[in-house]
From TrEMBL:
InterPro entries: Methyltransf_11, SAM-dependent_MTases_sf, Thiol_S-MT
Gene Ontology terms, MF aspect: methyltransferase activity
CDD domains, per the entry: AdoMet_MTases (cd02440)
Species annotation: Acinetobacter terrestris
Source lineage: Bacteria, Pseudomonadati, Pseudomonadota, Gammaproteobacteria, Moraxellales
A Pfam match: Methyltransf_11
Domain Methyltransferase type: 40-132
Official protein name in the record: Class I SAM-dependent methyltransferase
Length: 207
């Protein structure tokens, strides 16, 4: 009961704060400003990406958690973009094959329970000419100590942060799901604890 209260009433506010860390906001700007037209954003969260969609007409805001989406509503109303909330999971997207030009994921692939299934779905709905734009925290590959710690702490992190895995190799998962990279780099995000500060910034397409 206490855990349920935490999940419904405390975690969404913590998420809203942490996800506005200045170094993350800088990455959102860089990722999203070049995007125009129609976008599907998975794991829309509390809507902090909205100000960075400068040339977007329609945004499908896929967010399965109503307690989190509740905190996005004010931002949605203040936005000039047509935002359509889609209450669904990335593992089962209510969109036709090859129908979406841009898909955005910012710090969402860590939280999806069945990542391979979700990536198969993203691949299915993305147009052949389309792009998947993402920034995600990932597992260390070169630093064995941090990698081990990430494995050790992921069960606790999943409980505290709504299913978030510290130890995902997102680039590998994308390649296994038949994406290829148009752009890809790693960086260390300022203001985030070292255990989760290694980030992948990437734009991918269907291989
Ligand atoms: C760490 S938050 C990131 C929120 C937002 N993308 C941002 O950049 O601030 C992860 C988000 O993924 C959502 N999520 C979790 N499982 C999901 C799933 N299976 N499909 C789509 N979104 C999911 C959560 O509800 C949450 O909003």
């Amino acid at each position: 009961m206490i855990y349920k209260f935490y999940q419904q009433h405390i975690f969404p506010h913590l998420l809203n704060q942490v996800m506005q860390t200045p170094s993350l906001m800088d990455q959102r700007r860089e990722l999203l400003l070049p995007i125009s037209g129609q976008v599907l954003e998975i794991g829309f969260g509390t809507g902090v990406n909205l100000p960075f969609y400068q040339n977007v007409d329609t945004l499908y805001a896929l967010e399965p958690n109503p307690d989190i989406y509740q905190l996005a509503i004010r931002r949605v109303h203040e936005s000039a973009i047509h935002v359509q909330h889609v209450q669904a999971s990335a593992e089962k997207l209510p969109f036709a094959d090859n129908s979406i030009e841009h898909i955005v994921s910012t710090w969402t692939l860590c939280s999806i329970e069945n990542l391979p299934q979700a990536l198969t779905e993203l691949h299915r709905v993305l147009k052949p000419s389309g792009t998947l734009h993402l920034v995600e925290h990932v597992q260390y590959q070169d630093n064995k100590t941090l990698k081990h710690l990430q494995n050790l702490l992921t069960p606790i992190q999943k409980r505290l942060a709504d299913g978030c895995h510290l130890n995902r190799n997102i680039a590998q998962a994308l390649l296994e799901a038949n994406f290829s990279f148009k752009e890809q780099h790693y960086f260390d995000a300022a203001g985030i604890p070292k255990i989760g500060s290694l980030m992948l910034f990437a734009r991918a397409e269907k291989a």
